[in-house]
From TrEMBL:
MF (Gene Ontology): ATP binding; phosphorelay sensor kinase activity
EC number in record: 2.7.13.3
Protein known as: histidine kinase
Endpoints of the signal sequence: none
InterPro entries noted in UniProt: HATPase_C_sf (IPR036890), HATPase_dom (IPR003594), His_kinase_dom (IPR005467), HisK_dim/P_dom (IPR003661), HisK_dim/P_sf (IPR036097), Sig_transdc_His_kin-like_C (IPR004358)
Domain Histidine kinase: 1-203
CDD domains: HisKA (cd00082)
Record flagged with keyword Nucleotide-binding: yes
Keywords, sorted A to Z: ATP-binding, Kinase, Nucleotide-binding, Phosphoprotein, Transferase, Two-component regulatory system
Coiled-coil ranges from the UniProt annotation: none
Catalysis: reaction(s): ATP + protein L-histidine = ADP + protein N-phospho-L-histidine
Superkingdom of the organism of origin: Bacteria
Amino acid sequence: MAHEILNPLNIIGAIIQLLQMEEEMPERFKPRFAEVMEQIRRATNITNSLRIFSCRHQPEISEVDIHALLDNTLALVRHDLELDNIRVVRKFAPDLPTVAADSDQLAQVFLNLISNARDAMRQSEPRRLTLATSLVEQGVGLAVRDTGCGIPASELSKIFDFFFTTKDPGRGTGMGLAIVHSIVESQGGFIEVSSRLGAGTEFFYCSTQ
Ligand SMILES: Nc1ncnc2c1ncn2[C@@H]1O[C@H](COP(=O)(O)OP(=O)(O)O)[C@@H](O)[C@H]1O
Ligand SMILES: [Mg+2]
């Protein structure tokens, strides 16, 4: 299904790019074409997220070492975080038990939370991303904490909704936390958020088995 949308989008994008390179293109059309490209990019982003979401296989449950998975996930984004001058603080609890989970899906959860934290700290200082694990009553916990812009109280109940985004088109799709929520629920865990406007946000994930 996603392919049927992505293919025409790719073709349209390629044609627009060719037109943009046309020497005889009148100056006054250029911003219009740039806007069309931006919208194509946006539609592509959303379709890609939908694909990841809808193609989700039945969870493949195994015993996951949360610390190893976090470090693997961090390795994927370390470069981006460094570019944004974000300091990463790992507070890993000793002797943390493994959790029964689908490691690909859990990696997706961590990636989404880290990517949101990164966006939230774009305009603020200091920029610190803390990943803190713990063994709590219900199971293994992970707090993803940032020193970013925070979330207004009036938006807290909406952030897990599909397509809720406060970001510019092209930057945000509003799919990240909806996917996070659905993955966490399907694996029998929970996720909570607490935030202070202008100070930062913490997402607390807990795997309950
Ligand atoms: N760490 C965070 N700090 C501040 N706001 C956040 C954070 N994480 C999520 N949000 C808010 O929740 C919204 C939805 O997030 P998400 O579902 O990942 O979509 P997207 O990142 O595409 O906007 C964001 O647009 C933002 O307003
Ligand atoms: Mg996001």
